[in-house]
Amino acid sequence: MKKSTLFGAALLALALSTQTGYVQAQQKEKTVTVGGAPMYPSKTIVENAVNSKDHTTLVAAVKAAGLVETLSGKGPFTVFAPTNAAFDLLPAGTVENLVKPENKSTLTSVLTYHVIPGKLDSKALWKKLDKDGKAELTTVQGEKLTVWKKDKDLYIKDAKGGDAKVSIADVHQSNGVIHVIDHVLMP
């Protein structure tokens, strides 16, 4: 056998074993299903979000705002991720208007209002609650959100007084954690 053929075969075997090892490692990860897709803790927020059929509007908005690179970065971030149904609750035409290039700064403000610096899973959020069951968090956008509890559920109150319920908590990512919410938060 020629050295080049042997070398090529060795490279192919290495590539296949590496790919197989990666797939096996992913299969062993503890995942949460969001929007019909498993969310892998070894992937970034963006790598997972693009697979959720419940978050296509959010992903399109993140792309339009130019935040893909940021949310693919090291982080860590805590993201309150509104579903497509949450965006559908906004007044007609709101999303279409926000994703226009001339409204990029407003869109960026709305989206970064859903992001908290650091990794706060539900356990960490519960620990932050005061004796009245509330905690204030400062967003990447700079304004405050209020986390509050009702029975065993966590809610997020925005600056306009709107509430969003955390419907799926603790979707761990390599660069943070996502909590799926049922309303869009407005600064």
Please report the distance between the alpha carbons of the first and last residues: 68 Å
C-alpha Rg, in Å? 20 Å
Spatially, the strands of the biggest sheet line up as 4-3-9-8-7-6-5
Q: What number is the mean pLDDT?
A: 90
Largest sheet: 7 strands, mixed
Low-confidence spans = 20-26
Write down how many β-strands occur, each being a DSSP E stretch of 2 or more residues: 9
Q: CATH H-level name of the largest domain... which superfamily?
A: FAS1 domain
As for the CATH topology of the largest domain, it is: FAS1 domain
Q: Report the CATH architecture of the largest domain.
A: Roll
Q: How many structural domains can be distinguished in the coordinates?
A: 2
The helical percent reads: 25-40%
CATH class of the largest domain: Mainly Beta
Order of helical and strand elements:
HEEHHHEHHHEHEEEEE
Which structural class do you get from the secondary structure elements?
A: alpha+beta
Shape assignment: globular
Total number of helices: 8
Strand content: 25-35%
InterPro entries: Adhesion/Biosynth-related, FAS1_dom_sf, FAS1_domain
Keywords: Signal
Protein name: Fasciclin domain-containing protein
